[in-house]
Amino acid sequence: MKIETTFIKNLLIITPNVFVDKRGYFLESYNKKSLINLVEDEFVQDNESLSHKGVLRGLHFQNPPYAQAKLVRVLTGSVLDVVVDLRKQSPTYGQHFKHILSAENKIQLYVPKGFAHGFAVLEDNTIFSYKCSDYYNKDSERAILWNDATLNIDWQIKNPIISEKDKIAEKFSNFVTPF
Ligand SMILES: Cc1cn([C@H]2C[C@H](O)[C@@H](COP(=O)(O)OP(=O)(O)O[C@H]3O[C@@H](C)C(=O)[C@@H](O)[C@H]3O)O2)c(=O)[nH]c1=O
């Protein structure tokens, strides 16, 4: 497993070792010990979503004390994954990081607590899978507007398909971070 740091503190790119043989492949999708001292979260919930090409989900987070760290990956298809640093003491507060995650590259992102997370779907039948360090809590769900001008994110798709909830998400310009 290769673990790479990014320009945003504690945000990691994880590339698993893939063992290919005549049957197909094998990989360890999560190994707590390999991430020791880097990822201290205990993951308690696994989620999966299927999306069509052109879907955009995000930018989501849960308020403390229900904040979630996430370990995200793609099982089929591909996405542009985007995270925004919401930690007010962070030198990269308000900045975003993006990376292509695909069934082909098998890359995972470790997104600590204190980030908003979203993704734009680049292929039909994209299955997105992620581990979360806290349970879903409907009352603490928050969303920041994906196309807020202040964030200046190039999502690489035009006129995305988004949920009604995400259409009325908060503007980052009015946003007060809970982290
Ligand atoms: C996130 C979630 C949703 N749900 C339900 C609520 C709703 O009826 C349905 C669909 O939920 P949503 O529209 O919020 O799904 P979605 O827009 O895919 O939400 C997800 O987006 C990505 C970007 C994230 O980072 C995730 O943490 C999560 O917020 O599933 C759960 O039961 N458990 C969960 O953990």
Automatic annotation (TrEMBL):
Role according to the record: Catalyzes the epimerization of the C3' and C5'positions of dTDP-6-deoxy-D-xylo-4-hexulose, forming dTDP-6-deoxy-L-lyxo-4-hexulose.
Reactions the enzyme catalyzes: dTDP-4-dehydro-6-deoxy-alpha-D-glucose = dTDP-4-dehydro-beta-L-rhamnose
GO annotation terms (biological process): dTDP-rhamnose biosynthetic process; polysaccharide biosynthetic process
Stored PANTHER family: DTDP-6-DEOXY-D-GLUCOSE-3,5 EPIMERASE, THYMIDINE DIPHOSPHO-4-KETO-RHAMNOSE 3,5-EPIMERASE
Enzyme Commission number(s) from the entry: 5.1.3.13
Position of the signal peptide: none
GO cellular component, one term: cytosol
Subunit structure as annotated in this protein's UniProt entry: Homodimer.
Organism: Aureibaculum marinum
Enzyme type, top EC level: isomerase
Protein name as annotated: dTDP-4-dehydrorhamnose 3,5-epimerase
Gene name for this UniProt entry: rfbC
Lineage summary: Bacteria, Pseudomonadati, Bacteroidota, Flavobacteriia, Flavobacteriales
Molecular functions per Gene Ontology: dTDP-4-dehydrorhamnose 3,5-epimerase activity
Highest rank taxon of the organism: Bacteria
